[in-house]
Amino acid sequence: MADTDFDVIVIGSGPGGYVAAIRAAQLGLKTACVESRETLGGTCLNVGCIPSKALLHASELFAEASQGAMAKFGVKLGSVELDLEAMQAEKMKAVGELTGGIAFLFKKNKVEWLKGHAAFISPNSVDVAGKNYTAKNIVIATGSSVTPLPGAEIDNEVVVDSTGALALSKVPGHMVVIGGGVIGLELGSVWKRLGAKVTVVEYLDEILPGMDGEVRKEARKIFKKQGFEFRTATKVTGVTRNGDKAMINVEPAQGGAAETIEADVVLVSIGRKANIEGLALDKAGVTASDRGVIQTDHLFRTNVAGVWAIGDVIPGPMLAHKAEDEGIAVAENIAGQTGIVNHEVIPSVVYTHPEIASVGKTVEELKEAGVELKIGKFPFLGNSRAKTNRDTEGFVKIIADARTDRVLGVHIIGSLAGTMIAQAAQAMEFGATSEDIAYTCHAHPTHSEAMKEAAMAVTGLPIHI
Ligand code: FAD
Ligand code: NAI
């Protein structure tokens, strides 16, 4: 190939794109990253993982303080007030520090930021803000955006998407969340803790589709106790704005009498779709599937040589850490090394209280595949640290192959589930059996001992229950 401006151009600076760009530069490739936002870091840092976790943390502090949760530990507080402006400002500070951190890392690693929207001109050139840039390799890391709900137009005042729900300047009296998935439950939790009444309308029979069946049921029970109202098996047929209120028309998913729910804010969170519009994929010859995602092989090559794709724009769970690992792998593949991602072991965490975390397969998936299972379950009620901290909700569940004892899935609902799942992911990556976990010494007193006990429960011999 004739001389090009760059060895690698990455389109998009989310967790997939910025990580790919940095690793490519570390491997000696002349690299640029195109980003049309004002700041680097993509959905995750700007309007996703980071601001949502900032508000989840802050709102949890407020809920604990205002509900007197610390009084039983002898910590008595006076009157507690919400300063939402300060809470939002602290969130923005964290976002600013982290997005600024990526700009610093780009400078440090000599990754050039091309500011603007990229569109393909050919397989090895893109247009950015009216200028043509060429590269031997182009990585599509354009991420995803909110799936629109027909009949519910987002105005980000009364009818909001996740970005709008992260930026509300007033606690709504009544928030209706359309979609009982990850975003609905996380952002519903934020506004619930700050004082809103929250109703979740979910099309399916149960919230959190795709997760372990027992965990889904337990989660609903706990969230209901927290005051969430659930309308499952219910479909939204339209949302209209009536002054500063929204009227949500719903009916049973299987058909039946319609009714209207009034809300101050409606959050539409029914999933996300890959960003492929405006890229002029046809100019590169890259094809997208019927479902609107870009197909790649296990090395992240598209159907066109020299064009690669990673992150939310390709199939698989739409998670930041999956995108990051693919970013590293694609850069290593471009540099002639072997970069692979084990898609069987991608942990996922819902950052509600309690947290919900899982890795590997669910019982439902394995039963459908005809795999014979052994299951060990241990409740936090039997864990000394959880009991001491007075946070005994939830359990750890380990699923192992009945023949080989190999761990095939771990599902946790509990206050520290998101931290605990890393151990399970590492064990599975190393091909661990439940016996391996059961005979690993776990520090006492920690919530992680519940993992060891669940592993012992696989053979029916837990100690503390
Ligand atoms: P993105 O982060 O979406 O980045 C793509 C970037 O490409 C964007 O900045 C976009 O502006 C840019 N771009 C697109 N097209 C072009 C173009 N043609 N030219 C130039 N630039 C372009 N995941 C987790 O793992 N943990 C969480 O806690 C979590 N919380 C979330 C909370 C919310 C509210 C949301 C919405 C998502 C959350 N996610 C979370 C999902 C996570 O944000 C995504 O999986 C992740 O950001 C995907 O990374 P990506 O690099 O593929 O794309
Ligand atoms: P989701 O796929 O998690 O949940 C969407 C929910 O909406 C599902 O329960 C679905 O059955 C329901 N639904 C779909 N259409 C509906 C309709 N018309 N009426 C009522 N319900 C309907 O999608 P969500 O919550 O929007 O999140 C998008 C993505 O962002 C997820 O894939 C997730 O991976 C990622 N994310 C990850 C987070 C994390 O890792 N903690 C946090 C937030 C988002």
Overview of this protein structure:
Helix 1 (15-26) runs parallel beside helix 9 (320-334), helix 3 (49-66) runs antiparallel to helix 4 (84-109) and helix 3 (49-66) runs parallel beside helix 6. This protein has helices spanning 15-26, 42-47, 49-66, 84-109, 162-165, 182-193, 213-226, 281-284, 320-334, 363-368, 384-389, 417-429, 434-438, 449-458, and strands at residues 6-11, 31-35, 112-115, 118-122, 125-128, 131-140, 144-146, 159-160, 174-178, 197-201, 229-231, 234-242, 245-252, 259-263, 265-268, 272-274, 307-309, 348-350, 355-360, 373-379, 395-401, 407-414. The model has no long low-confidence stretch (mean pLDDT 97). Strands 1, 2, 3, 4, 5, 6 and 17 form a 7-stranded mixed beta sheet that branches. The protein has a 5-stranded parallel beta sheet with strand order 8-15-9-10-11. It is globular. The longest helix is centred in the first third of the chain and has 26 residues, at 84-109. It folds into 3 domains: 6-146 and 273-334, FAD/NAD(P)-binding domain; 159-270, FAD/NAD(P)-binding domain; 348-458, Enolase-like, domain 1, CATH 3.30.390.30. It is an alpha/beta fold and 465 residues long. It contains 14 helices and 22 strands. Bound molecules: flavin-adenine dinucleotide and 1,4-dihydronicotinamide adenine dinucleotide. Flavin-adenine dinucleotide binds at residues 11-17, 34-37, 42-44, 48-49, 52, 117-118, 141-144, 162, 183, 275, 278-279, 311-312, 318-321, 323, 351.
Q: What are the defining features of this structure?
A:
single chain; 465 residues; FAD/NAD(P)-binding domain; 3 domains; seven-stranded mixed beta sheet; five-stranded parallel beta sheet; 14 helices; globular; binds flavin-adenine dinucleotide; binds 1,4-dihydronicotinamide adenine dinucleotide
